[in-house]
Amino acid sequence: MNITRNNSSSLFQGDSPFGKSEAYIKLEQLGEGSYATVYKGFSNLQNQVVALKEIRLQEEEGAPFTAIREASLLKELKHANIVTLHDIVHTKETLTFVFEYVHTDLSQYMERHADGLDPRNARLFLFQLLRGLAYCHQRRVLHRDVKPQNLLISEIGELKLADFGLARAKSVPSHTYSHEVVTLWYRPPDVLLGSTEYSTSLDMWGVGCIFVEMITGMAIFPGFRDTYDQLD
To answer: What does pLDDT average to over the chain?
Structure first.
């Protein structure tokens, strides 16, 4: 196992050990997206396993706006049902978010229970999802991408909202946002039709879709191609 030893700049003042890449060890790759790679890692500071979301920086463009938004929101959102952001490491090439490590996600969990979850487990997950979203909504934050892949499940059955890259603090008095939010299967009809005026109901539609999927083992509105196919 090799420690990544870039010349990192600390986001903390003084001699704080946080914000430094040498504090973390990459163990294995967990997944890769369009602008970030997620690793299972180990924190020498906390002596525990963590998740490292490594975002590749473009020399001219810098950090993606979604990453900046995710960091700013998670810094303020502290709740048992929201994934914890422990640290941020900034180097010339990458921006790395250090999250608590959570065992699996709801999508993977449901794949192991193809006929639907035990009603008691579905009820437990639903309660935790609603509690986490209520905390966000009370603080005027919309998640905007509620789907099983963004709901992490710990080994003891704790559900945690993750991936706040599309999340947004609700502006006042304007309620106009982008309609390019939420994976198609969990996107409400008005947003599919291009509406940019929505509120907490956007997240709650996704909750309803996920609840049905947990009970039946099947997505309730599985479109396969594009927005028009999803509406059909």
So the answer is: 84
Q: Give the pLDDT confidence score for residue 67 in this predicted structure.
A: 85
In contact, 180 and 192? CB cutoff 8 Å: no
Q: Which CATH architecture has domain 104-216?
A: Orthogonal Bundle (1.10)
**The dihedral sign for the CA sequence 120, 124, 125, 127:** positive
Q: Per the residue annotation, which of 87, 105, 145, 163 is the catalytic one?
A: 145
Distance of CA 148 to the CA centre of its chain: 10
Provide the token pair at 207: 């909750």
96: β partners? 54, 89
Q: What is the CB neighbour count within 10 angstroms for residue 145?
A: 22
Query: Does the 22-100 domain belong in CATH 3.30.200.20?
Result: yes
Report how far residue 162's alpha carbon sits from residue 79's, in angstroms, rounded to the nearest whole number.
12
pLDDT beyond 90 at 167? no
From CA 107, how far away is CA 210, in angstroms rounded? 10
Residues at the binding site for ATP are 53
145 is catalytic: yes
Do domains 22-100 and 104-216 share one topology? The answer is no
The pTM (predicted TM-score) of the whole model is 0.82
